[in-house]
Amino acid sequence: MKLKEFNKQHNHQYSAERYYIRPRQKEVQKSLERFQDAKFGIMFHWGLYSQWGIIESWALPDADRDWAWSEIDSDLSCAEFRRQYWDLIQSFNPVAFDPEQWAKTAKDAGFQYLLFTTKHHDGFCLWDTHYTDFKVTSPECPFSTNENADICKSLFDAFRSEGLKVHAYFSKPDWHSEYYWPKGYAKNEFMTRNTSYNTLLHPGLWRQFRTYTKNQLLELVTRYGRIECLWLDGGQVRPINGMNLHLSGIMKEARRIQPWLMVADRTVGGRNENFITPEQTVPDHPILVPWESCVTLGSSFSYRVQDTFKSAKKVIHLLCDIVAKGGNLALDIGPRPDGRLPEEVYPILSEVGRWLKKNGYAIYGTRPAAPYRNGNLAYTSKGDEVYAIYLPAEEDDANNLPTQLHIPFNRTVNRVLFNGREVPFTCGPKGISVSVTDAFERENAYVFTCR
Questions:
Q1: Which of 77, 228, 343, 375 is the most buried (most CB within 10 A)?
Q2: Which residues contact 219 (CB under 8 A, 6 or more apart)?
Q3: How would you class 442 by CB atoms within 10 Å of its CB: exposed for 0-12, middle for 13-18, buried for 19 or more?
Q4: pLDDT for 182-211, tens place per residue?
Q5: Angle at Cα 250 formed by Cα 244 and Cα 256, nearest 5°?
Q6: C-alpha–C-alpha distance, residues 194 and 167, integer Å
Q7: pLDDT at 10
Q8: Is 284 helix (H, G, I), strand (E, B) or coil?
Q9: d(CA 362, CA 70)
């Protein structure tokens, strides 16, 4: 099964009305307002899997082999594959990692916050945790002597220095932990993405894992500076599946340290999912509660050799579509094994940054405006202004803009501005018609301000 097909089958249908609960804490509510203002985050999936250029972590469970090994040419057993994979800690050495350069690139591209994989499902920790030796600062890892060995600290500090916020991805399942996949509990050592034991029959083991998880989460919010959000992946770890982390209690303790802290307990719902997170997809309708779609710039969340990437035009249109429907875009990039970002992403991000520098007023700090999306138009608003963003057809390389543009919304309009100048328009029962006759610079998307 291809990854795209897997995501389609396993993603929840994100019906906000079904399970969203507004957080009670006023500080968290303020954080959500700031989050909804930010609109654009950069996400990085980076870890041991990057060295082999394979899917992030998912090749480890036997139960996921059929789809997760689609790009892995090997006849190894899953058990042997896991043994070789765990040994990658001995070769993880991204000597070209430059956190300041990552942060500057993100700032110049118009990103407002970082979302970084502190630990994926494989359990490899990219910070100097005190609770496992399976970490980047372990003496077993050659990168442990580097000045940036505590990758999370270096990266978080660099992004904050550029004025960007920090969101921390954290996997609830940990397939390397002796408390999650202890040996001798799984039949024939056939591993699934769940615990290898029945938590009801072995409550002591589960308690140990719950304590381990709590300690790591509190460690991140205690030792790693201001964090805006704990972005928790691995939705199978939930009470209904017999894997209750007592997350509400953990978050209560975490907010004693950082009262503004948001949490995204992905696909679980309830009070610990402060915003919802569709993956590799954009809802076809507006969602009027906080949400963020995580979408890859390349073909995968993690590094691939000779990958293909979305164009800057595609990214800009994706961002406009998401913002018009009330969401944020977390654009994911898979860093290379040596610590550099793929060379191909720089011109893409630079072009996106130039567009946002000129037109970001129609993105940042906005809220949705009816009719949200229709045809080539996306709508956002700020105060009394409504922005109609014209998105040229994807196949239109010249980015043509009609000389007569119909904007079909029912509202009183006194002025229409394009490129900072008033343009003529007429009002009718089905909207307004705008005339564009003067010369203009070709862009990937065009913003009209309606007042």
A1: 228
A2: 127, 129, 130, 131
A3: exposed
A4: 999 988 899 999 999 999 999 999 999 999
A5: 165
A6: 25
A7: 37
A8: coil
A9: 41
Distance CA 271, CA 118 (A): 23
Q: What whole-number distance in Å separates Cα of residue 168 and Cα of residue 387?
A: 32
* Cis amide prior to 402 (ω within 30 degrees): no
Residue 155 pLDDT level (bands cut at 50, 70, 90):
very high
Helices 99-108 and 151-161: crossing angle in degrees, nearest 10, is 40
Residue-wise pLDDT tens digits, 292-308: 999 999 999 999 999 99
> Cα separations (Å) of 209 from 104, 195, 213?
38, 10, 6
Question: What SS3 string covers 98-143?
Answer: CHHHHHHHHHHCCCCEEEEEEECCCCCECCCCCCCCCECCCCCCHH
For residue 244, give the amino acid letter. N
Does the global pTM surpass 0.90?
A: yes
Q: Say which residue the tokens 């009394």 belong to.
A: 384
CA 58 and chain centroid, separation:
18
